């Protein structure tokens, strides 16, 4: 691996981490701040099927998945900073276009374009961190980034609800545009270029195909990449259904922002914990333990859906615990999948984000569209996704869990000499 380029004296490790987390947080804001506005949009745009409103989330995620294929190769050729600048300004413009939409179809089209631009704020964050760190050190910083990033899902629905007290749902998109422009200014003035000159890759179809082939044919990278997308799909299934769950199942629409924040705290707490323990125990041991716990909790969610279907406290307790497992799984699976690709970090990260996001968006949309007035589709989604992800991990590790590659096991003394 080439030595990382030194950061400017004015931009230390901590500011870099906060900046990257803030860029990722714009995507969370673009999703979660809209959730309280779902009923208003349904009424204002006259949607016949209330479940259709969930496509506002799914189409944005589809855009981020496809956009990941674009921004990664561009950043490998032209650098991380210029692509981030173009993307953040583009996200602001399309967010404004969303606020001006006169039909649901137009809103979905602008949301897709918004997602195409916003994709850079996910894939290039990983590339920038990979330019500077690798292995468990990368996992620790990614976990810290996810921790800061997770503050936004805790407060974003409240921000959206607050805006709705004084203005319409379109103003939420205006706010997103303003924040994207602020982020662009921060990147312009403070972020140095982190791409090493020796790692510049021309935009050539065969070069991209070669990088993507490396990801697909690497057993660990492919398995952990797909596993991360499947687990995230369960999360998106809940996210798509969340306003309807609180309103129609638990008759607690007024409690939505508080309940959503409680669940998000589970992921924030796990990412904080992960940042403290991952370098000690290793990304595999932590994430695989969390995945097994995820399956157990998913089983309990299905049982609760059957025997206590309208208990909001039980629903929140189990969901928050399982969301915490998602926090342990996500950043560590991503770090494991990226470890072999320091020389093609942008192309590898973009392809992995493309696969993970489209897979998660598809699974989340499928789970969300199954909403039938009960919590069972969401609960079953967690359990099934966990089991499939475990099967993939077992395939990756050839049946051996809780290993830590790169460490030398201690061999006990042989008493017989």
TrEMBL record:
Gene3D superfamilies according to UniProt: Multidrug resistance protein D (1.20.1720.10)
Entry keyword Metal-binding: no
Span of domain Major facilitator superfamily (MFS) profile: 16-398
Segments crossing the lipid bilayer: 21-41, 53-71, 83-102, 108-130, 142-166, 172-189, 221-239, 251-269, 290-308, 314-333, 345-368, 374-395
Domain of life of the organism encoding this protein: Bacteria
Alphabetized InterPro entries for the sequence: Efflux_drug-R_Bcr/CmlA, MFS, MFS_dom, MFS_trans_sf
GO CC field: plasma membrane
GO molecular function: xenobiotic transmembrane transporter activity
Topology in the lipid bilayer: Multi-pass membrane protein
Keywords carried by this UniProt record: Cell inner membrane, Cell membrane, Membrane, Transmembrane, Transmembrane helix, Transport
Compartments where located: Cell inner membrane; Cell membrane
GO BP annotations, alphabetical order: xenobiotic detoxification by transmembrane export across the plasma membrane
Pfam family, one: MFS_1
Family of this protein: Belongs to the major facilitator superfamily. Bcr/CmlA family.
Official protein name in the record: Bcr/CflA family efflux transporter
Organism encoding this protein: Sphingorhabdus lacus
Native organism taxonomy: Bacteria, Pseudomonadati, Pseudomonadota, Alphaproteobacteria, Sphingomonadales
């Amino acid at each position: 691996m080439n030595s990382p380029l030194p950061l400017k004296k004015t931009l230390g490790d901590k500011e870099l981490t906060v900046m990257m987390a803030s860029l990722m947080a714009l995507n969370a804001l673009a999703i979660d701040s809209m959730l309280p506005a779902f009923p208003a949009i349904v009424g204002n745009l006259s949607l016949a099927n209330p479940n259709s409103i969930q496509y506002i989330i799914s189409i944005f995620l589809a855009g981020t998945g496809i956009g990941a294929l674009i921004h990664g190769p561009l950043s490998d050729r032209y650098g991380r900073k210029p692509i981030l600048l173009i993307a953040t300004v583009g996200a602001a413009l399309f967010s404004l276009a969303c606020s001006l939409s006169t039909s649901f179809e137009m809103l979905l089209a602008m949301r897709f374009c918004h997602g195409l631009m916003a994709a850079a704020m996910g894939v290039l964050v990983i590339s920038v961190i990979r330019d500077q760190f690798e292995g468990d050190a990368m996992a620790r910083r990614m976990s810290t980034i996810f921790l800061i990033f997770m503050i936004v899902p805790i407060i974003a629905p409240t921000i959206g609800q607050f805006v709705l007290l004084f203005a319409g749902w379109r103003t939420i998109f205006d706010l997103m545009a303003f924040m994207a422009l602020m982020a662009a200014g921060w990147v312009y003035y403070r972020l140095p270029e982190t791409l090493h000159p020796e790692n510049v890759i021309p935009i050539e179809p065969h070069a991209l195909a070669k990088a993507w082939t490396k990801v697909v044919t690497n057993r660990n990278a492919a398995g952990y990449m797909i596993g991360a997308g499947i687990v995230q799909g369960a999360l998106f299934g809940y996210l798509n259904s969340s306003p309807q769950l609180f309103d129609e199942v638990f008759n607690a629409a007024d409690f939505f922002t508080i309940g959503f924040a409680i669940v998000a705290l589970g992921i924030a707490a796990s990412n904080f914990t992960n940042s403290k323990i991952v370098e000690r125990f290793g990304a595999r041991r932590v994430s695989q333990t969390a995945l097994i716990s995820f399956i157990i909790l998913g089983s309990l969610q299905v049982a609760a859906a059957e025997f206590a279907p309208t208990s909001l406290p039980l629903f929140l307790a189990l969901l928050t615990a399982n969301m915490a497992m998602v926090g342990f799984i996500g950043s560590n699976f991503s770090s494991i999948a990226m470890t072999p690709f320091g020389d093609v970090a942008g192309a590898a990260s973009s392809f992995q984000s493309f696969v993970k996001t489209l897979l998660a968006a598809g699974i989340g949309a499928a789970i969300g569209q199954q909403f039938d007035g009960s919590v069972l589709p969401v609960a079953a989604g967690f359990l099934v996704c966990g089991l499939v992800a475990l099967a993939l991990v077992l395939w990756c590790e050839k049946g051996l869990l809780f290993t830590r590659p790169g460490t030398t096991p201690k061999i006990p003394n042989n008493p017989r000499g």
